[in-house]
Design goal:
alpha/beta; TIM Barrel; 7 helices
Length: 232
Amino acid sequence: MRINSIYLATEGEGIWVGTVQIFVRFNGCGIGCNNCDSSYTWSFNEGLDMSLTEVLAEIHQVGHNGLIKRVSITGGDPLNCKNYDAAMSLAKSLKEKNYYLNIEASGDRVAKELFALVDFISMDYKTPSSGVNTPLSVITQMIDQFSGKFQVKSVIENLQDFEYVKNAYTEIKRGLRAINFSWVLTPSYNTNEAFPKERFESILNWNESCGGHFRVVGQQHKWVYGPKKTNV
């Protein structure tokens, strides 16, 4: 397994904000979002070359010798074809050890076998500022196949991003009586700027004015440690 880091931290974003868990961060990502805050994980040639046994031992150790039984598999991109088999092996082993598993998914595809195995999926829906497109069909597949066990997260840089996500929400809801998952808007907090108070306020106002379809959740770890600190 090509591992960037394994560390214990408190979740800083999405609906699980404030939850203590162990993060297993894979190295390697071929997506390349403009606003990625973990571009140091993109290379498939860097990181630690670890066996499954070594990864499991590290998870046990950093989780206070098995006290923490919640793991988030992230990256990089654990669903990339170069990481997928390793992520599957890790997930199977952790479930056998009764860990609660979250997988961070980039939104480019539905990985049915892995998604069925884990307890929760955090799915990205990319916005124009990222320079990457997420097929809307991925979200509809998630609704059909994994209802009740996923969230959608979108990073919002500006009004164009917000309108893009609002239109996607409207398109998905058309024909549905209700949307039974949380769609989280994350105000972007770039590494070269101070706390984006004005952007945060704007997103809150936009969400309120459109009917409050979304949950606006900032990145708590960046408020506490600053936008450049990693492994927190």
